[in-house]
Each structure stands twice: as C-alpha cells, then as structure tokens.
C-alpha cells in the first residue's frame, strides 16, 4: 500500500510538473532545444508570413510557405514541428496563429530596447528603418563620439555622446546593442556594452569581436556578402560559351595578368 501510494504520488507529481511546464511554454514559448539552424530560419518564415498576410491570405500550405521562404517543404515542416505546429492536412497553416507561434519563439511578443553606437551613414540608415518598431524593437538611443554630430536629431532621437553609454543602457534597460562604428573603436564599444550588462550585440563593424561566454554576437559584414556574390557571378560567367559576348575567358585575358602583376607588386 505504502509503495503504491508513493508511486501514485510520484506519478501525480510528474503530471504536475508536465502541466507546469506546459503552462510555462504557453506563457514564454517553447523550451530550449530548438536547433540553431532552425532558429536562423524562423525570421525568414516570419517575413514570408507577413508578406502573405499583407496579401489577405489567411491559410497557407507548407509548399507555398516553403517557396516564399526559399527552403524545401520537408525542412519547413520539420522546423515548425519544433514549435509544436503541424498544420492541418488539406488546409495548411493558419497564418495569424503561425505568426504568433514564431514571434513567441523568437521573443518578439515583447518590446526590446536597442541602442545604436555610431551615428554615421549606416547608423542613420538603421535608425530610420521603420521595420524595427513593427517587429518589436525600439531604438532607445543613438550615441556617437563626434562632437559635430552629438546633439543633432536623427529619426526623432537626439544623438548623445558615447560617454553616456552606461547611463543610457541602465536608464532604458537596453537589451541589444548595435555597433555601427569604424573597426578601430568597435572592440572598445563592445567591451563597454558588455560591462554595462548588454548580452546581445549586432556588429556591423568589419572586425571579429572578442566577448566573454554568455554574450551573443551577430556579425553583419556587407563586404563579405558582396565578395560571395562576386564568386558566384564569376562562376556563372565562366560557364558561358567561349563565343558568348562578354564571356569571362576573353575578359580574363585582358584583366588577369594586370591583377596578377598588381598582387605581385603588393606582395
């Protein structure tokens, strides 16, 4: 009797924990364990879903959503299964509910205060981008070290001196720091953001930042992306027939020696 009572009690406790976990998931989103590759694709799915919703579409088949996101449908279904969303056979996914599920998983059901450090051309463009607010991100402040820029108005924000970084982070409870500075000052800015308590950083500077464990850094390097595109463009050009106008082979006979000579001179 005692043993059975213990077993029943343990079982009830287990059910209670499962129910508590389910309630926590309903409040905060699915538990950890979603693959990083899936997390990286969720914003792409969300963008595709917003596009479909703007066209007045209420439900979408996995094949259509996968095509809009640029992935295969099997991968999409597997990714969404991590969110507990499987769609309805013959109907597909309810777009509004799927937007909610993806947004909840990404943490976009709350506002995230963001500080941009660097008020140059890139920083200005980021501050003026209207898509941040609609996705749950609020630009709380812009900072710069140039006294000629400090005090100016950009996207309804008054640019403040970078000396105020720690105070700004504390006052606005900043969750995400964006570094849009030259490479030479990026690491120092990163160190200050981390010391102030910011653990999520988006880096546009052409530099690999060194951060302690527990700090997440996402790097956006436009020059690298352009170089990758140049690689693929070159591959496509070299595949053209030799007699095609402007093919890479005839062009290369003029350009390659000159480039080689320049590289040799630099080396």
Q: Can you summarize this structure?
A:
By secondary structure, this protein is an alpha/beta fold.
Question: What does this protein structure show overall?
Answer:
By secondary structure, the protein is α/β, with parallel strands linked by helices. It folds into three domains: 32-106, Winged helix-like DNA-binding domain superfamily/Winged helix DNA-binding domain (Arc Repressor Mutant, subunit A, Orthogonal Bundle), CATH 1.10.10; 112-220, NAD(P)-binding Rossmann-like Domain (Rossmann fold), CATH 3.40.50.720; 225-266, no CATH class. It has eleven helices and ten strands. It has helices at residues 2-28, 36-54, 62-69, 73-81, 95-106, 121-127, 131-134, 165-172, 183-195, 222-238, 248-266, and strands at residues 59-60, 93-94, 112-117, 137-144, 153-154, 157-158, 160-161, 176-179, 200-203, 216-219. The strands form three sheets. A six-stranded parallel beta sheet has the order 7-4-3-8-9-10, with helices on both faces. A two-stranded antiparallel sheet has the order 1-2. Strands 5-6 form a two-stranded antiparallel sheet.
């Amino acid at each position: 009797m005692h043993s059975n009572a213990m077993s029943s009690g343990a079982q009830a406790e287990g059910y209670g924990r499962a129910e508590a976990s389910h309630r926590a998931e309903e409040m905060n989103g699915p538990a950890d364990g979603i693959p990083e590759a899936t997390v990286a694709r969720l914003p792409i799915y969300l963008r595709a879903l917003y596009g479909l919703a703007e066209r007045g579409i209420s439900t979408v088949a996995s094949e259509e959503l996968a095509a809009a996101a640029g992935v295969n449908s099997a991968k999409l279904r597997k990714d969404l299964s991590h969110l507990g969303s499987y769609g309805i056979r013959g109907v597909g996914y309810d777009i509004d509910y799927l937007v909610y599920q993806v947004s909840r998983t990404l943490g976009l059901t709350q506002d995230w205060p963001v500080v941009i450090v660097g008020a140059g051309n890139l920083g200005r463009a980021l501050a003026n981008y209207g898509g941040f607010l609609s996705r749950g991100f609020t630009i709380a402040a812009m900072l710069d070290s140039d006294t000629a820029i400090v005090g100016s108005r950009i996207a309804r924000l008054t640019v403040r001196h970078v000396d105020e970084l720690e105070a700004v982070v504390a006052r606005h409870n900043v969750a995400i720091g964006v570094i849009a500075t030259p490479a030479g000052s990026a690491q120092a800015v990163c160190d200050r953001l981390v010391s102030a308590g910011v653990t999520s950083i988006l880096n546009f500077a052409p530099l690999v930042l060194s951060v302690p464990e527990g700090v997440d850094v996402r790097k956006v390097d436009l020059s690298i992306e352009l170089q990758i595109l140049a690689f693929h463009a070159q591959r496509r050009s070299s595949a053209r027939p030799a007699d095609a106008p402007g093919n890479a082979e005839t062009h290369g006979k003029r350009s390659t020696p000159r480039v080689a000579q320049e590289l040799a001179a630099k080396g």
